[in-house]
Amino acid sequence: MSTPTPEVYEQGKGMDAHNKVMREVRSRNDASYDPREPTRVWLDEDNTPDGVYQSLTIILNTGGCRWARAGGCTMCGYVAESVDGGSVAHEDLMAQIQYCLDHEAEEADEKAGLIKIYTSGSFLDEREVGAETRRAIASEFADRDRIVVESLPDFVDRAKVAEFVDAGLETDIAVGLETATDRVRRDCVNKYFDFADFEDAAAQAQAAGGGVKAYLLMKPPFLTESEAIEDMQRSVHKCADVEGCHTVSMNPCNVQRYTMVEELFHDQGYRPPWLWSVCEVLESTADEDVIVVSDPVGHGSDRGPHNCGECDDRAQRAIKDFDLRQDPSVFEQVTCDCEATWDAVVEREASYSLPLAR
């Protein structure tokens, strides 16, 4: 894995402090999960460089992200859904794949052209998904058009990516970059790598004939609403300049269980981003030479990105419409009186510790 600078591990400070808190929070979870069933599977539509595809999204249940087991990211609760013991056998992972194929056969009229595989960690980390399983999955989906697999940049290797490209698949590596600002990634997200590592991963993927999809996190803890908007606008611009990066998926932060964000939320120290902020970033970056999309999870709820409650569904529909058409004019069709409150928050909110409006 990338090596952080020494000071971030200074006892009681930086990442050491974050990780200590995160380990204590995560220790409260006592749930267990079936290693032969995926965490989630669903059908959707996604915009790609080759157009809009019906997609089959698979979240494999693995032993979980190794960084999360050290403490991990302040907002990520996915490791809480991982199988106990740190590893899952090849046969069990392939049973999960079959479960997803059965779901697709029951719910869809035809096979999805796009396959998206996540592990709540790194698909290319062989401690989560072994080489035998990775190659079997490449073979299983060789009749599809495109595949997306998620990984931290450390594990993005030209030879691994080539296994999918050589199977005839347009291949994209989804990297949880979160932000192009190294300080925000380190101090707000508690993620250890630098933007330069993301650039290196993009180069590895491109050398194998693949591409990169950057995942950004809108409004991690310790940022005001205006700072979050500016960070996303800057991050989209920097990602667009990285060769091989063709898509940016901006994920508004939501409050997941067993996370530092949840602790802050319960202490009135965190509010998820406004959907107006999501719309603002999408509209203002529409001219960048990269596909920019967003899928606000839990929209309209207190724990998810939300406005006033009256306009949340309309804003969400506009965001989804933009994802597919990349036309910023869709946002002109959505208005609400609460925009005035959002404007005041963006202008006046000066501290992360007490959100100006809930």
UniProtKB/TrEMBL annotation:
UniProt key word Lipoprotein: no
Keyword list, A-Z: 4Fe-4S, Iron, Iron-sulfur, Metal-binding, S-adenosyl-L-methionine
GO biological process, any: tRNA wobble base 5-methoxycarbonylmethyl-2-thiouridinylation
Alphabetical list of SMART domains matching this protein: Elp3 (SM00729)
Pfam families: Radical_SAM (PF04055)
MF (Gene Ontology): 4 iron, 4 sulfur cluster binding; catalytic activity; metal ion binding
GO cellular component entries: cytoplasm
Listed SUPFAM superfamilies: Radical SAM enzymes
Domain (Elp3/MiaA/NifB-like radical SAM core) ranges: 55-284
Entry cofactors: [4Fe-4S] cluster
Record NCBIfam families: archaeosine biosynthesis radical SAM protein RaSEA
UniProt protein name: TIGR01210 family radical SAM protein
